[in-house]
Write a structure and sequence with these properties.
- By secondary structure, the protein is mainly alpha-helical.
- About 80% of the residues lie in helices and about 0% in strands.
- It contains 4 helices and no strands.
- Helix 1 runs antiparallel to helix 2.
- The protein is elongated, with a radius of gyration of 16 Å.
């Protein structure tokens, strides 16, 4: 049980590290002021990369579940897809479900 949680937390850590990078980039661009629009493309690129990482981590979490909790297939099937807009909320809601299930 605790091994499963540990693996899930590792996946979550990857997500949070990537999100921190985005926030740092955004902070830089907002400080620059007028140059913000030129830097906008760079931020979008970061956001896309993080979207890919979310998907990868989501798959990893799903695989962890399949391996360790076969009796809990209903929960595994309900893993949400992550969109750019509500990725933070979705991940948090999903992780709370997972930890309750585990």
């Amino acid at each position: 049980m605790y091994k499963v949680r540990a693996k899930i937390y590792k996946e979550m850590a990857k997500i949070y590290k990537e999100r921190a990078k985005i926030y740092k980039e955004r902070a830089k661009t907002y400080k620059k002021g007028s140059k913000m629009y030129k830097e906008g493309a760079k931020i979008e690129e970061y956001t896309k990369n993080v979207g890919k990482i979310y998907e990868k981590c989501r798959k990893n979490i799903r695989n962890i579940h399949k391996t360790y909790t076969k009796h809990n297939e209903r929960c595994v099937k309900q893993v949400p897809k992550v969109s750019d807009h509500n990725n933070n909320i979705v991940i948090q809601k999903y992780m709370s479900q997972v930890l309750v299930a585990v």
